[in-house]
Amino acid sequence: MQKDFDVIVLGSGPAGLTAALYTSRAFLKTLVIAGNSPGGQLTITTEVENFPGFPESIQGPDLIANMNRQVEKYGAKFINELAELVSGSFEEGFKVKVGINEFIGKTLIIATGASAKWLGLESEQRLKGKGVSACATCDGFFFKDKVVAVVGGGDASMEESSFLTRFVSKVYLIARADKDNLRASKIMQKEVLDNSKIELIPNTEVKEVLGDNSVEGIKVINNKTGEESIMEDVKGLFVAVGHKPDTDFLKGFIDLDEKGYVVRRKGSQTSIEGVFAGGDVHDHKYRQAVTAAGYGCEAALDAIKLLQKRGIEVKAGGY
Hints:
Layout: E1 4-10, H1 14-25, E2 30-33, E3 47-48, E4 58-59, H2 60-73, E5 77-79, E6 85-89, E7 93-98, E8 101-110, E9 114-116, H3 122-126, E10 132-133, H4 136-139, E11 147-151, H5 155-164, E12 170-174, H6 186-193, E13 198-201, E14 204-209, E15 218-222, E16 228-231, E17 236-239, E18 243-245, E19 275-277, H7 289-309
Parallel strand pairs: 1-2, 1-8, 2-5, 8-19, 10-17, 11-12, 11-17, 12-13
Antiparallel strand pairs: 3-4, 6-7, 7-8, 9-18, 14-15, 15-16
């Protein structure tokens, strides 16, 4: 396999694949380093109803497969491994270490995304996409008129709980802390806890998600009394304990914020010229497939324009 590319894209979710689509259509030699779990979070999402162009909805893995085929059609190369180390500069080229191989790109697009933090339960992992979710905006509609639980005590859990009340009949907000020590802002707490559809269950942790092919309840424990109980009416569990951007391998190479998200400067440009970022790797607010795709497009167009300025021939197909 060739080692030198005009563009190296790190990540193969909607952001990375959209970026690769634009750069490969511009006839730029493009390499996608897809990671060990190609496709990102969409591959563990069942039905996607909010991505434009699919009025009958589409399965998450199918959407990613379609994107892959579209990118491959224009000649992009793929490696289903993790980038381990990145170094270099725009003047000398960017080196990406992947196992025993090293690839060099004139530009680099970082679209490695962010991973939801989970509770670490076997039953939770088994039922992901079958009633267990980390995205109320993505999956809330599927729980219309049902009872669900949200786990977390920060602003994210408050936002998820509030959003879910548009669809569900009741939300249990399960928090490890007591009512006076929740991490969420006071104004957010008041807005959520004044909602008649939301009931706070403090000092409580989820021990097990019940059910074989769907959520049929949850087993919880009071962390003050040690008392266990089963909440049989819960038919969906939303975990809202935060996300972690997949950027550990970038520490010391580009600027990251205190939570590890990539810091963007002008447009999609990072702290290093020639390195661009798009998607959940920098976006900790929206975290949607369609916004990630938009950010990926932005990063690709910025990379194309920079290469054009440096005398690299770019075909009109990039636009």
